[in-house]
Amino acid sequence: MISSVRKIAYCASRECRFRMPIDVRSLLEKALDELGYRDRIGLVETKCLISCFQGPSIMFLPSGKVFQVLSEDNFTQTFKDFVAALQHPTLPLLGEHHAEKEIPGIEHLAFFAKQKLIVLRNRGHIDAESIEEYIAHDGYLALYKALTAMTPEAVIGEVKLSGLRGRGGAGFPTGTKWEETRKYGSFPKYVICNGDEGDPGAFMDRSIMESDPHAVLEGMIVCGYAIGSHKGYIYVRAEYPLAIRMLRTAIDRAREKGFLGRNILGTGFDFDIDIYPGAGAFVCGESTALMFSIEGKRGMPRTKPPRSTESGLWGKPTCLNNVETFANIPQILLNGGNWFRSIGTADSTGTKVFSVAGDVKNVGLMEVPMGTDLRTIIFEIGGGIRGNARFKAVQLGGPSGGCLTEHHLHLPVTYDSLHDAGSMMGSGGVVILDESNCMVDLARYFIQFSVDESCGKCVPCRVGLKVMLGTLEKIIEGQGEPADLALLERQANHIAATSHCGLGQAAPTPVLSTLRYFHDEYVAHIREKRCPALVCTALIRFEIDAEACTRCGLCSKVCPVNAITWQQDQVAVLHREQCIRCKSCIRACQYKAIH
Amino acid sequence: MITLKINDIEVTVPRGSTILEAAERARVFIPTLCHDKRITPYGACRLCVVEDRKKPGNLIPSCFTPARDRMDIVTDTPGILEAVRTQLQLILVNHPLECPVCDKAGECTLQDLVIRYNITEAPFGTDRFARCVDRDSPLIERDMTRCVLCGRCVRICGELQGRDELEFIHRGHKTVVATDGGRALDCDFCGLCVSTCPVGALNDKLFKDRTRVWKLQKKTTVCSHCGLGCRVDFHLEKGQLRRITPTVFPDGKKGLICVRGHFGWRAFESPSRLSAPRIRRDGALRETGWGEAVGYAAKALGEIRRSRGASSIALLTADHLTTEEARACGALFRDTLGCTDIGSLQAAGYRRILSVLDAELGPTWEPATLKDLNEAETLIVLGGGAAELHPTLKPLVNGLMRKEGRELVVLSPWPDTLTRRATLALTITAGYAEDFFAELRGALSAERTHASADIARFGVDTCGLARLISLLGEDRKTTVLVAPDPFGDNLQRARLAALLHGRTRSILPLGAQVNSAGALRKAGLSSCGAAVEGLSLIEAIEAGRIRALYLLGEDPLEALPEPARVRAALERLELIVCQSPFETAVTDLAHVVLPAALAPEKGGTILSLLGFESEIRPVLPLFGQSRPDREILRDLAGALGTGEAPRIHPPSEMPATTGLARSAAQDTGADGFSFRLTAVPSLFGDGLLSRQSPDLAQTRRGLRIVMNGEDFEQMGLGEREIVEVRTPNGSARAEAGHDAAVPRNLLLLRHAAGSAAGLSLIRPGADVVPAAIARIGT
Q1: Least confident residue range of A188-197, A313-322, B273-282, B654-663
Q2: Whether residue B301 sits in one domain with residue B264
Q3: Fold category of A351-432 in CATH
Q4: C-alpha span between B158 and B174 (Å, rounded)
Q5: How many A-B residue pairs are in contact by the CB < 8 A criterion?
């Protein structure tokens, strides 16, 4: 019932802008004007409703019914239809989720049903720029509880009890880190929030910073109280201007309300936060490089010991956590460590936000309890492979993560299980690949990324990766020799064993994991000079298989240089001397007759 | 202490040592490329990997990993050797094999490792990333194609020299070491980067393409550009000096060096070296034999002594004499001739401070040593220019300051090098430094524990002062460095230091020449007489009291303000004897010129200002007919005859008053002079020896003034523009530069020594003079 709608939240995130560059707010205003509800329903701009595959969408609050904006044209009419559908539930809902009888609430959509939202609980429900809305959703209650009713030790105890592990990838127990930092008697101490999310395709941290910045601030203030620090920094990539703006606004509001600055909530505790925009180096996500960057130095990892908890930023004890880690803190304090522990598995507690991308139907963010298996993530929440193609592999953990196969779909996602399988949790990037992907090419892609992002400090990462890239390119170009496989493995193991920081140590993982699980594909490239997925252009013969050919002539029509001649009811003929290997014909042929 | 095993050899090392240090103790070789003991470990080359038997297969970089008790380290498993070999092969991917034309061949760490690990093939081919060669910088050539990116130059420049001139730019395999914007080097040119480069990427231009390292013979001696006593290696090819490098100490740690020591050696073969004795005959200087020259000098000295008395002879020494020579010199001039005026120009400040301290603290007093410096938790520097007088103090102090909790307090009227590194920098208004030191002494001796507001009139931050006083009150090991002002009076800072000695027991006067400390503290050739200070000497000559001047490597024309007045005074003298290695401005006025050997050409004992005594042997052959000073002095003594028994001279007294009218900082308002100018010492050396080096001259770039950036902008000056500087005393052309740390309306004048125009700007005895600058042609 439209009369029961209090607010309409609409998505204004970057993804949605990319998908459909329209001004949802003015469309909504116009539609509500016409319906005469303009004054009665509040509009809430949210940065992410996390169902990115449907974006931009709007959500009716408090009911949680979702409406997908399909086009600018005729918006008012479709909106009216939807509202009518709310009142007369027999009309079909727009988008993929057709409801026969009733428009389902958000929690009933397949995409959301298996999710458990802790970190993302406020997404879409609140206006991220309004501190009042955050407070109305129990915001800063955890801070109040910590400052008034808990000692710093008790806060650390609660975090330790929760079993929360760092969400940045390494999975270091957060409570232990806080305890370590508290232990050192050197002052001042610093709290750093690592928002330098650099993995290609990963955007959960950005989404949190944009849609619920106060949760991050609250986590940081609590951390400051727990470790005895009065100064926090948020290091955000400069490529996240909206996140920076939201955080700035949030910090200003929090200062106005007395949650930041001197004498927080009248308890005598001082804490303030500054934002430090990074300059876009992937390696600055590494904690020590990040600290150098804040100090104004070149972002390069330094030698340890000492650990940052002892001597970090400006040589002082520093507690650095990831955005998602901090965003978990308020909920842990409010609901207790035991509650958090009850979610997930024994060693990996709580939930994890994944950003799912690739050849899956529902791309976007999903927050699931730790231990959820890959199959649930990919096939239930993700909706399965797009275009009903076959699942081939899932790549986890960003550019330094590994590829897993069908055989691993049963794997519960925890820090340790992924590591044992030759991949890693990383920051939570999940890329689903269907059979049209060549794993050698994929490995090359990720190594290229690491080559570009290596800081250049240590030899194996700087030179070794470049050399390994050369070997992969050689294989892709069809120049591979049988000895190259052993060479690749030797190079990869050497880099992993002797690199200085996590970037270098993990960079060969895509190669090692594809060598392990897709060995045949490498062999095909090297021995048969064939790319089974028809990706590596140099290895495609561009032959037309007369048996598979249905004589449809489509290939001839799409060829931009007329290298394929076709006559009615004849097998097409490909003239290789004219062919520019653009692969248009391969993409066009539905019968896979060209290879 | 912890005990661990390295290749089954048990060693005990202090807690906190690295595995690499433990291995060194066990005499086990671990390959390194990016490691230099002078700087903190970095872990870039990954060659130093080892394994703990308890965690097999886990490669540990040993250069920065702390050794732990009961570790069982192995360094030669097949896995380690394979990793090291692969690492070397990877390094070679981007390293051109141009060893035949590389100056480093023969002492190249990479070459040595490649041979040691028998790398005979290069399995990893890849496109080499093109990097540039910087041939434009003075003194140093940077061939980045050979660079292995170990970062040693970047780190030594930042960590020790504090310049951060070099930095990595770009990233990944495109990383290069470069200056900002890729410009030519414009730094201290200390050459520490050259000294640390393990390959042939950073080259000493004076050495490049001259010879091959295996033809060189290495001789260790003491650097003679200042009195700090840095140990250096002279590399000679058939007696010909080819280069100077910092010494490698027995523990494998290289020493420190500065621009003068590293690149100043061509002074030894300067075209103005005196090669034969000369005497003035028929109004002109003519070359002659040693016998005649010494005879001439002896005769003239004897005559003046007879006719005018011994007190009419003055001796100025540049303190280039060894201790033995200084002793002989003292015996000859003070005891035999009865000369009462002995002084120095180049070491005047050091001599003055030391004599005040001697007088106030008595004979048992000992200056601080390197150990005191190393152990000091608080370093206090009185006066500006400490690291300009002794450039290696800078890396030394920067090295010390790496340790947690160290305090460096600098009380200086201008932003010198150490001010920038100070944890507490107290800037005194230029011209008031001596007044301030006197006031501070008063405040401290009255046992007042708080800074009086009165003291603030010297422009000193009162909070900072309170911090200094509280630091002095704390139980911290403290060493006080006293840096003399080159043209000012240094009495008050010396007296303040004497007072502080009561609290710290560790005072180190600076400004010594190569053997000033030896001459004063071992040979007793201390300054005495009324005419030892620059101005009083000239006044004594003008008054007709001093008739003869014996110059041991000194030149008043190149060191004293008002050169016209000095020249007029010198021209009145009946006798000037120049016993010097170099032909300088005063040589033309001399009656006798005796070519003397330089420190590396003679043997003897040298005492550094840090208290190190070294026996040095000649490392260079004598130049032309020049002779060591001891031989000249011996012959002179012989020619003078020992008619009288040597008199025992009473211990030297501190010169009564300075006679130096203190600078009138009040002058600043003088008409048309909107700036105040103060002469400051130069990193490139103001001493005679340093000024003779063509290479240092190139980097000095003549007379320079430095002013505040806003003043610079207001004047509309361009970078390195030549401007006209005017003071009530004279005018000169100088290159203008700017520095944000210089206070407004202050001009720092560099390189005045040796420049008649520069010296003409300064007023004797004044540390600050009013000045104006104008653009040329406006």
Answers
A1: B654-663
A2: no
A3: Ubiquitin-like (UB roll) (3.10.20)
A4: 22
A5: 96
Task: Look up the domain containing B380 and give its range.
Answer: 350-511
Q: Which of A293, A300, A458 best probes binding to B when mutated, by most B CB atoms within 10 angstroms? A: A458
DSSP letter for A385, please. Answer: B
What is the Cα–Cα distance from A569 to B651, expressed in whole angstroms?
123
Residues B247 and B142 in one domain: yes
ipTM of the complex as predicted: 0.87
Secondary structure class of B95 (helix, strand, coil): coil
Q: Where are the beta strands (DSSP E) in B699-768?
A: 704-707, 722-726, 731-738, 746-750
State the CB neighbour count (10 A cutoff) for residue B564.
13
Is residue A130 predicted with pLDDT exceeding 80? yes
- From chain B, pick out residues whose CB is under 8 angstroms from the CB of A288: none
The DSSP H or E segment spanning B629 is helix B629-640
User: Any idea where the domains of chain A sit in the sequence?
Assistant: 2-106, 131-341, 351-432, 439-526, 541-595
**Gap from A490 CA to chain B (nearest CA, Å):** 9
Contact at CB, A458 and B44, closer than 8 angstroms: yes
Per CB-CB distance under 8 Å, the chain A contacts of B87 are 459-460, 494, 498
pLDDT band at B550 (very low <50, low <70, confident <90, very high): very high
Q: Which of residues 455-494 of A touch B (CB under 8 A)?
A: 455-460, 462-467, 470, 487, 490-491, 494
| Cβ neighbours of A282 in B, within 8 Å | none
Flag whether pLDDT at B555 surpasses 80.
yes
Q: Would you tell me which residues 161-180 of chain B have a C-beta closer than 8 angstroms to some C-beta of chain A?
A: 167-168, 170-175
- Residues 6 or more apart from A338 whose CB is under 8 A from it? A161, A162
Nearest-CA distance from B741 to chain A in Å?
20
B389/B684 Cα distance (integer angstroms): 9
B43 touches chain A (CB under 8 A): yes
The tens digit of pLDDT for each residue in B515-535 reads 999 999 999 888 887 767 778
Hey, what are B127's tokens?
């496109």
Q: Does A96 score more than 50 pLDDT?
A: no
Does the model's pTM come out above 0.90? no
CA distance A275 to A213: 12
CB contact under 8 A, A281 and B46: no
Pairing of strands A7-11, A42-46: parallel
CB B130 within 8 A of CB B94: no
Cite the beta strand spans of A348-453 per DSSP E. Answer: 351-358, 364-369, 391-396, 403-404, 429-434
Distance CA A583, CA B735 (A): 66
Quote the crossing angle between the two packed helices A213-227 and A141-149, to the nearest 10°: 10
